[in-house]
Amino acid sequence: MHLVYPVVLSALLFCTGLYGVLARRNAILVLMSVELMLNAVNLNLVAFDVWLSKAAAETLHSGQALTLFTIAIAAAEIGIGLAIVLAVHRNRGTSDIDRLRDTAEGPESDGPDSGAPAAEKAEATT
Questions:
Q1: Which of 22, 24, 16, 19 lies closest to 95 in space, CA to CA?
Q2: What 3 state SS string does 35-78 have?
Q3: Hey, is 108 helix, strand or coil?
Q4: What is the per-residue pLDDT across 71-91, written as a single tens digit (0 to 9) for each?
Q5: What are the residue ranges spanned by the domains of the chain?
Q6: Which of 68, 71, 99, 111 has the fewest Cβ atoms surrounding its Cβ within 10 A?
Protein backbone atom coordinates (compact mmCIF):
# COMPACT_ATOMS: atom_id res chain seq x y z
CA MET A 1 0.00 0.00 0.00
CA HIS A 2 1.24 3.45 -0.85
CA LEU A 3 1.93 6.09 1.77
CA VAL A 4 -0.42 8.52 0.05
CA TYR A 5 -3.63 6.72 1.06
CA PRO A 6 -3.24 6.90 4.85
CA VAL A 7 -1.81 10.43 4.65
CA VAL A 8 -4.79 11.69 2.65
CA LEU A 9 -7.20 9.91 5.01
CA SER A 10 -5.35 11.41 7.96
CA ALA A 11 -5.55 14.89 6.44
CA LEU A 12 -9.30 14.50 5.88
CA LEU A 13 -9.81 13.30 9.47
CA PHE A 14 -7.71 16.16 10.83
CA CYS A 15 -9.61 18.76 8.77
CA THR A 16 -12.92 17.29 9.92
CA GLY A 17 -11.78 17.49 13.53
CA LEU A 18 -10.53 21.05 13.06
CA TYR A 19 -13.88 22.06 11.59
CA GLY A 20 -15.60 20.45 14.56
CA VAL A 21 -13.46 22.38 17.04
CA LEU A 22 -14.02 25.69 15.30
CA ALA A 23 -17.72 25.34 14.42
CA ARG A 24 -19.30 23.42 17.29
CA ARG A 25 -20.78 25.05 20.36
CA ASN A 26 -21.31 21.97 22.50
CA ALA A 27 -18.29 21.17 24.67
CA ILE A 28 -18.68 17.41 24.31
CA LEU A 29 -18.66 17.68 20.51
CA VAL A 30 -15.52 19.82 20.73
CA LEU A 31 -13.85 17.11 22.83
CA MET A 32 -14.89 14.50 20.27
CA SER A 33 -13.39 16.64 17.51
CA VAL A 34 -10.11 16.90 19.41
CA GLU A 35 -10.10 13.11 19.70
CA LEU A 36 -10.64 12.86 15.94
CA MET A 37 -7.64 15.13 15.38
CA LEU A 38 -5.49 13.00 17.71
CA ASN A 39 -6.53 9.85 15.85
CA ALA A 40 -5.49 11.49 12.58
CA VAL A 41 -2.07 12.13 14.08
CA ASN A 42 -1.90 8.51 15.26
CA LEU A 43 -2.70 7.29 11.76
CA ASN A 44 0.11 9.44 10.39
CA LEU A 45 2.56 8.15 12.99
CA VAL A 46 1.81 4.51 12.19
CA ALA A 47 1.81 5.07 8.41
CA PHE A 48 5.19 6.79 8.44
CA ASP A 49 6.57 4.16 10.83
CA VAL A 50 5.60 1.37 8.45
CA TRP A 51 6.91 3.31 5.47
CA LEU A 52 10.25 4.06 7.13
CA SER A 53 10.65 0.52 8.47
CA LYS A 54 10.56 -0.80 4.91
CA ALA A 55 13.47 1.46 4.00
CA ALA A 56 15.60 0.91 7.12
CA ALA A 57 17.33 -2.32 8.03
CA GLU A 58 16.68 -1.86 11.75
CA THR A 59 13.08 -1.42 12.76
CA LEU A 60 12.56 0.51 15.97
CA HIS A 61 8.82 1.07 15.56
CA SER A 62 9.09 4.45 17.24
CA GLY A 63 5.95 5.69 15.48
CA GLN A 64 3.90 2.90 17.01
CA ALA A 65 5.38 3.59 20.46
CA LEU A 66 4.51 7.27 20.12
CA THR A 67 1.00 6.26 19.08
CA LEU A 68 0.59 4.27 22.30
CA PHE A 69 1.68 7.31 24.33
CA THR A 70 -0.73 9.51 22.38
CA ILE A 71 -3.59 7.09 23.05
CA ALA A 72 -2.79 7.11 26.77
CA ILE A 73 -2.67 10.90 26.87
CA ALA A 74 -5.90 11.12 24.86
CA ALA A 75 -7.64 8.78 27.31
CA ALA A 76 -6.55 10.93 30.25
CA GLU A 77 -7.56 14.09 28.39
CA ILE A 78 -11.03 12.84 27.59
CA GLY A 79 -11.54 11.63 31.16
CA ILE A 80 -10.55 14.95 32.71
CA GLY A 81 -12.28 16.99 30.00
CA LEU A 82 -15.52 15.07 30.36
CA ALA A 83 -15.40 15.48 34.15
CA ILE A 84 -14.95 19.24 33.75
CA VAL A 85 -17.77 19.48 31.20
CA LEU A 86 -20.11 17.49 33.46
CA ALA A 87 -19.24 19.67 36.47
CA VAL A 88 -19.85 22.84 34.45
CA HIS A 89 -23.12 21.42 33.10
CA ARG A 90 -24.22 20.52 36.61
CA ASN A 91 -23.46 24.04 37.91
CA ARG A 92 -24.56 26.13 34.92
CA GLY A 93 -27.20 23.94 33.31
CA THR A 94 -25.63 24.10 29.85
CA SER A 95 -22.55 22.90 28.03
CA ASP A 96 -22.84 25.53 25.30
CA ILE A 97 -19.40 27.13 24.96
CA ASP A 98 -20.79 30.50 23.83
CA ARG A 99 -22.97 30.82 26.93
CA LEU A 100 -20.25 29.91 29.41
CA ARG A 101 -18.29 32.74 30.99
CA ASP A 102 -15.66 33.00 33.63
CA THR A 103 -16.86 31.64 36.96
CA ALA A 104 -15.77 34.83 38.73
CA GLU A 105 -18.27 36.93 36.78
CA GLY A 106 -21.67 37.55 38.26
CA PRO A 107 -24.87 37.89 36.27
CA GLU A 108 -24.90 41.69 36.58
CA SER A 109 -21.37 42.28 35.25
CA ASP A 110 -22.23 42.44 31.57
CA GLY A 111 -20.14 45.41 30.53
CA PRO A 112 -18.33 48.56 31.55
CA ASP A 113 -21.60 50.35 32.44
CA SER A 114 -22.63 47.74 34.97
CA GLY A 115 -20.51 49.31 37.75
CA ALA A 116 -22.25 52.72 37.49
CA PRO A 117 -25.31 52.00 39.70
CA ALA A 118 -23.08 50.61 42.45
CA ALA A 119 -20.96 53.77 42.39
CA GLU A 120 -24.09 55.95 42.58
CA LYS A 121 -25.35 53.95 45.59
CA ALA A 122 -21.99 54.39 47.33
CA GLU A 123 -22.11 58.18 46.76
CA ALA A 124 -25.71 58.40 47.97
CA THR A 125 -24.92 56.72 51.29
CA THR A 126 -22.01 59.07 52.13
A1: 24
A2: HHHHHHHHHHHHHHHHHHHHHCCCCCCHHHHHHHHHHHHHHHHH
A3: coil
A4: 999 999 999 999 999 998 898
A5: 26-101
A6: 111
